[in-house]
Amino acid sequence: MPGTTIQAISLYKLLVPLKEPFIISLGPLTAVENIVVVIRTADGHVGYGESSPFLTINGESVDTGFIVGQYFAPALQGRDALDLPGCLAELDRIIYGNSSIKSAFDIALHDVAAQHAGLPLYEFLGGKNDKVLTTDMTVSLGSPAKMQADAVRFQQEGFPAIKVKLGGTLEDDVARIRAIRAGIGPTHPLRIDANQGWQTADRAIAVLQALGEFNIEHCEEPILRQHFMELSRVRAASPIPIMADESCGDEHDAARLIQLQACQMLNIKLGKSSGFHRAQKIARLGEAAGMTLQVGGFLESRLGMTAAAHLALSSPAIHHCDFDTPLMFTDDPVVGGFQYQPGGVIEMPTGPGLGATIDEDWLRRAEQVHF
């Protein structure tokens, strides 16, 4: 279709400091270093996508993504934006991996396609705005006293669930959770994420068993992702359900984990899966296996997180949302997008497409390249 021919593509670096360091077992994060992709078609549609590269998880940085994106842009110019399978296959043909920057192009292409169809992106993906999305709020690693204070503040702010970063020694992590439970009480929903920090199955089992008394909903990625063959043993010995995160990048990872009965849950992120195209394949596999799914992200702005929220509405198996990182930004460059409401509720845009863009003043000031 000539009207939906890709006419121009722009890449921008989106750099925003965080309010305070966000600390996980893989190290501290102090600033957002993302890439925004803007795709324009001959008939005037404009699609936006965002990637949040993560050196220690997807092996990408804002600089590598900015360069690889410049391989993609000229290859997509002149193609039909509605040929999603063909455009996305071209990205895979050009370079292996690089799931983060691929996700930004995938999101922008889906934004264009949904606008062209006159549908909100969640409806274009086959979903409905028929469930209330709520986000948890994350407590980063620190002293028990600091983590307790943060958890109490998040509870008072009305977040329906609190996620806690762990991954230290057994004694330290038990002290952290004990302090948090003393602050928020025994029943407020509590989730934990080790980000591979316990490394081995034996160590993870010991910590999980020690945490069994604290009424924890689930634990994300307790061991090194290279040791995924050991996850089924961790699952069998753990009193806390296991959710795969770093070990579940695409649909092939998901299929392996399901076959191994390695975990009860999967955490889907667009930046791990290369975007909606593969993320939906993971969701369908998890749904068929009767699993509970979560959608999360890295350090995306409300633009990238709005894309994640559209994904969350596309599958009935997705019950948990981890969409809190934009609340950690010192500034919000997004126009439109989902809105945070009291109680951690996410209010979705209902117009055609993604429903989120980046403020033009931000884009003018950003490092950028155009094709």
TrEMBL record:
Q: Which residues form the active site?
A: 165, 269
Q: Per the annotation, how and in what number is the cofactor bound?
A: Binds 1 Mg(2+) ion per subunit.
Could you state a single Gene Ontology molecular function term?
racemase and epimerase activity, acting on amino acids and derivatives
Domain Mandelate racemase/muconate lactonizing enzyme C-terminal: where? 144-241
What's in the keyword line of the UniProt record? Isomerase, Magnesium, Metal-binding
Which cofactor(s) are needed, names only? Mg(2+)
Stated EC number for the protein is: 5.1.1.-
Recorded superkingdom: Bacteria
Keyword hit for Isomerase = yes
Q: Which CDD domains match?
A: L-Ala-DL-Glu_epimerase
GO biological process entries: peptide metabolic process
A Pfam family assignment: MR_MLE_C
Q: Where does Mg(2+) bind?
A: 193, 220, 245
> What InterPro entries is this protein classified in?
Dipeptide_epimerase, Enolase-like_C_sf, Enolase-like_N, Enolase_C-like, Mandelate_racemase_C, Mandelate_racemase_N_dom
Q: What protein family is recorded?
A: Belongs to the mandelate racemase/muconate lactonizing enzyme family.
Q: What is this protein called?
A: Dipeptide epimerase
Species in which this protein is naturally found: Hymenobacter properus
